[in-house]
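Teaching note: in complex prediction, the entire set of molecules is handled at once rather than each chain in isolation. The prompt given to students was simply: 'Predict the structure of this complex.' The entities are:
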Amino acid sequence: MRQIYTYLFAVMVGFGCHTEEKLPYLGNSTDDGENVVYHKIRPFSYFNQDSIVITSDTLKNYVYVADFFFTSCPSICPKVMKEMLKIHEAVKNHTEVRLVSFTIDPKRDTPEKLKIYADNLGVHSKNWHFLSGEKDFTLDLANDFFVVALEDPEAPGGFDHSGKIILVDKSGHVRSFSEGTDSSKTDQFIEDIFTLLKEYE
Amino acid sequence: MNKYFGILALYFISIFGYGCYDSPYMQGKRLYEARCQNCHMEDGSGLGKLIPALQNSRLLGTSGMACLIIRGKKDSTLQNNQYVVREMPGFPDFSATEVANLVNYINHKFQPDFRERTINQINKDLAPCASDF
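The expected output is the structure of the full assembly:
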């Protein structure tokens, strides 16, 4: 019997430790002997749905959640957006968190079109940016987020891309991700956001 | 031993029974999962005003469903000063039987007073868009 209690105690401590854990730094990091340099998102500059310039510098005081999409996407985007909405709902009162959705089809997705999209999605928050910029740059930028995004005339809607949702810290490092097409992963991802926020308390 | 076998058999029968009761339109369910679910979602809840929810849709149970599936929809309307974009891809590759399976699955799942549409009815429903597929 005592053994069982010891075991249960160990399990509880284990669980406790798990939530206190620091999120890992994802991607390749280099260690020059003195400093560890972690993988970092490159600097960027975009227009949001209100035609306001949003740059990586604008976001430096925020933890942000990113995804790549396009409004006329007939395949996985609506599913990923549904999960983004769930995340938005969970963090909307946390002023340190932003959501950032990059369009990979800026030719059609102008800031004006993104405004309509956000309105119809029911998002009127200033904390969620729908960003439109240079297409080739965006397809490259996606790599920094470990997202595959490419133009493919054969793919539904003309683009092929993965539905990852990525968590970035205030220094531009990727700290967690979730598959936007798998709704069972979203709760853990939301927990990761709060774990990350604890680093800045 | 025989007794246990009987109990086991009953158990399996009840599981299969439930399976059938759960979705009598398996073909339609598969079509829904493959072609509709990405946008309308598994529970038919859609996505904001971008993708209409299927629950409580006025189109449920109507003759208009068949041609909507074949033709899709491409219209954008101004409602309360808000631009509503509603585009749905059409599926002209569906056969009448597939349309019937899908329509019945959707109606059965989302319409409270479900009534099955027969293949004859679906064929009539499809007459206005017969040239589209």
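Point out the following to students. Chain A touches chain B through 16 residues (CB under 8 Å). The longest helix of chain A spans residues 2-20.
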